[in-house]
Design a protein that fits this description.
3 domains; 7 strands; two-stranded antiparallel sheet; 332 residues; five-stranded mixed β-sheet; Heat Shock Protein 90; elongated; alpha+beta
């Protein structure tokens, strides 16, 4: 209510009603009751006074809008740190300035994030390309045996696979943030999680990891089935990678009200508390990931994909005990 009384709408309405009331009262008093000799001149003077007051009010409003427009014209992709200033109070123009500043904050963060992303991609691509080039240059310096050539080719294939994986992850991340809505449809989430459990069985067989699951049947949802499956597989794959031999991974799915709760729990290495807030950052690799192949995009892709399904991911972890990833997806 306080904000309403401070708004431009209220001020203009109040000025309009007060002007009509004052002018009407003045006419009745001077013309009909008191019958002043110069009542016509007084009415004209009063009308001019009210018109001047109205003009000043409108001028101040348009001047504020013009000032806001001039400040916005100074903002570009290189000056997103600028903010609209000199607006106080709670009227509509001050609220508009505040909204614009909040929009600029979001754009500034988005631009910085994208610039950092490009730099990270360039860095990730630079290392394998440099390795390939140096390998080829060394190979051409002298004649070598067939076994040496085979080893060099094998190493080159490994680096090529690394490049391919990174590019694929970058494309997946880009899709996750701007999906193709035409691919959205109704699918059986229970069936998808069962497939993830079967894939987990195959992935964990080399390390003799015990995969268990408890999946509620016939849970339907609307979304992007294949992409959601890839996102969940990234989390399952991480659970297996960071779980010791003969360890355990449990996958569960239950329905809670209008949400689906997916839990992926392992008894692996766990995550340091200082690293939990960074694990969803692009290209972030924790202190225990140095010997694990990957570009550090898997969890970023998972988070982006879950977000477009109006869901959230929560992580609980303790070093040496294991990690639990909880994904809540909206079914409504």
């Amino acid at each position: 209510m306080k904000i309403f009384f401070q708004s431009l709408r209220f001020r203009l309405l109040f000025w309009y009603i007060l002007s009509l009331a004052f002018l009407g009262t003045f006419i009745v008093l001077t013309v009909h009751i008191l019958q002043y000799k110069y009542s016509t001149q007084l009415i004209i003077g009063l009308f001019i006074l009210l018109a001047i007051i109205g003009f000043i009010a409108v001028y101040r409003i348009t001047r504020s809008i013009g000032f806001l427009s001039s400040q916005m014209m100074k903002v570009s992709s290189k000056t997103l740190d600028k903010r609209v200033t000199s607006f106080k109070g709670n009227d509509e123009i001050a609220q508009l300035a505040k909204t614009i500043n909040e929009l600029l904050d979001r754009l500034d963060k988005a631009f910085k994030r994208e610039r950092q992303f490009i730099a990270d991609v360039a860095h990730e691509m630079k290392t394998p390309i440099a390795t390939l080039r140096s390998s080829f240059e060394v190979t051409l310096q002298k004649e070598r045996s067939n076994d040496e050539y085979k080893k060099i080719i094998k190493d080159s294939i490994t680096e090529t696979d690394r490049l391919t994986t990174t590019l694929k992850d970058v494309l997946d991340l880009a899709w996750s943030e701007v999906p193709n809505e035409s691919l959205k449809g109704i699918f059986d989430l229970s069936e998808l999680i069962n497939e993830m459990a079967e894939i987990a069985q195959k992935l964990g067989s080399k390390k003799q990891i015990e995969i268990t699951h408890s999946i509620s049947p016939h849970i339907q949802m609307i979304g992007f089935r294949e992409r959601l499956g890839r996102a969940l597989l990234n989390i399952v794959d991480n659970a297996i990678k960071y779980t010791r031999h003969n360890g355990k991974v449990h996958i569960s799915l239950i329905k809670e009200y209008n949400n689906a709760l997916i839990t992926i729990k392992d008894n692996g290495q766990g995550i340091e508390e200082s690293e939990i807030e960074h694990i969803f950052d692009r290209f972030y690799r924790g202190s225990k990931a140095e010997k694990i192949f990957g570009a550090g995009l898997g969890l970023a892709i998972a988070q982006a994909t879950v977000s477009i399904h109006r869901g959230v991911i929560q992580v609980k972890s303790k070093p040496g005990v294991g990690s639990t990833f909880s994904i809540v997806l909206s079914l409504s």
